[in-house]
Write a structure and sequence with these properties.
two-stranded antiparallel sheet; 68% helix; 425 residues; mainly alpha
Length: 425
Amino acid sequence: MLADFFKLKEHGTDVKTELLAGATTFITMAYIIFVNPSILAAAGMDQGAVATATILSAGITTILMGLFVNYPFALASGMGLNAFFAFVVAAKAGWEVALGAVFISGIIFVLLSIFKVVDYIDISVPVSLKKAVAAGIGLFIAFIGLKNAGIIVSDEATLLALGNLAKGDALLAIIGIAITAILMSLKVKGSILIGILLTTIVGIPMGITKWNGIVGMPHSLSPILFKMDLAGAWKLGFFTIFSFLFVDVFDTLGTLMGTAAKADFLDKDGRLPKIKDAMLVDAVGTCLGAALGTSTVTTYVESSAGIAEGGRTGLTAVTTGVLFLLALFLAPLALTVPGAATAPALVIVGVLMMSAVMGIDFNDFTQAFPAFVTLAVMPFTFSIANGIAAGFLAYIVSNLFAGKAKEIHWFMYVLGLIALFHFAI
């Protein structure tokens, strides 16, 4: 029944592979269950209630992605957007108003998806930029993994430097990277998931892995449920709502194109079939998240971890979503996996995603330059949206002055103006 519903044979996969891939994606992104509530709590929100909202919105939306789009993409409250929510908007106007702004941005996103504006985006963006987005995301998530593990740290003189690699999280993460790399080299099925589990075990004698129990009751949503202030959100002005919308749309677009390229979902023209449906689910997830009481829900780059394990259909997403819902009661167990054990997965997936650069024609400067800008800006500015926007502008400028104006799709100019607006604000 599962094979027929999700068309597993058509996608060259099986139930076992999909379940394994879904579990891998869940473990790789489960950190959001604990990180998001702590960030939103800084805005005065009830941390336990936010944890429940984070889990419910991730689980429900990811299952919707699997059932209605049949793609292996998972969704949850977005990092970066939650910080903007808590430390910028909520700090200025209150978390209820911030939730209202997120909800309104989600409604606008839904309309853009329904009226096929996202289709124009998919058609107009050249294949070279899509490949660059995939590779850029690879660099970005590897950077996140190294940063979260303390392998790289901030430095006043050089901006970045090596952390203390002889102990703590950094040492455990290095051990985890080595374990996973060896497993990958030996072509062991489920290398990333096995690597996470083995690294968690290694962390026990090191004092990093902490046993937190197995079962716990979920916290009530009542302190934050349906508390968004829509009237107050409109008073914030267009720019604040547009900021939520812009980052959500472009982060989602970038993640979808990047992970889809890695999964070979793009057609012969470099387009992603059913992108409208995938974006619509993401937009609905944003509205649902705001209603439940959490910041913008978006498609996660960590979906690439499951894709790297062979996940190719919605069964992967449904598996991830179900595990999220189970985490309502198993949060103490999920907390046992330390961040240093999931960081290696991000680094390894970054390696795998870099293969997309082979689809970029570096002999054509009008293709190479925009691709490089996209690749560089994402990790250097810690933003997928910045990388995409900069790449759009670089593509328009380089091709326009090279006499290739006719090769630029008209909607790219629209995206270029939006990108300029993004950097202006």
